[in-house]
Amino acid sequence: MKKPLLEIKNLAVNFEMKQAKIHAVRDVSLSVNAGETHCVVGESGCGKSVTAFSVMNLLEQNGKITNGDILFDGKDLRKISPEEFRKIRGKEMSMIFQDPMNSLNPVYRCGDQIAEVLTNHSDISKKDALKEAIRMLDLVKVPNPEKRAMQYPHELSGGLRQRIMIAAAIICKPKLLIADEPTTALDVTIQKQILDLIADLQKEIGMAILFITHDLGVVRKIADKISVLYAGEVIESGNKNDIFGSPKHPYTIGLLNAIPKIGKTHEKLQPIEGSLPDASREIIGCAFEPRCPKRMEICKTQKPPKTESKTHSFSCFAAV
Fold first, then answer.
1. What domains can you pick out in the chain, each with its CATH number?
2. In angstroms, rounded to a whole number, what is the distance separating the alpha carbons of residues 49 and 67?
3. What is the pLDDT of residues 219-230, one digit of tens each?
């Protein structure tokens, strides 16, 4: 059996704050195969972005991986040197960030920022790299790419800035693209264009995608596999048909019930009552227990068992 391109095993990440230790990721395991799209979903604060930043070795200084393995294309990313990691990051795996205005350098032209990724990972001249950057802008459907390459980020719309980020992320044709909620700040029309663009580029380049989002409408459109995170743990995972067609965990069911349904505008949405647990506290039993409509006494004191099939797994006493 072919090994996954990316494999995360039992990842745990803490952040040291002045008055507390924040358990941002408690136990995350997932894998991404070559050429597939694996979506990571859950509400804000559940550990999605921290998981992505851990893979890219971009955690803040006060963030520390305390447990787990991150394997990429046969390499143990936790054991390689910072110099080796810089050779991989941007070339073999790259990332699209949530807010391009905060990710792009405001004092450098867009074309130069894209070209810099290429010059950092090859012996190409700056002139030829800029030509390739313009070609990438054309590939990601930026109108008048020669002109846009000479402009600064603040001169472009949000949709165009996101395309600049995508061009920079794919210029080295990475094996893995991590997209951290890349359409959150965009209107619905531009959002669809960006999603279609990423799908087209995936087919052309053959890259795998780890897509971070809280939007289940997006997930339904693009996912091959899905991992549902809650309080820094994967509580359910499976292929798209498993998650949307036969969800098992009460949290997953709650997320799906909270989606507005076309033609049923008279029906009230069903929100999940309560909020995420305090991230500074250890969790003894099931993290979702205080909010769960199916909670039992055992859920307060014991971690739920994991039930697994070939394509689907979930951790819940009530669903067993």
1. 6-92+174-273 (3.40.50.300), 105-173 (no CATH)
2. 17
3. 999 999 999 999
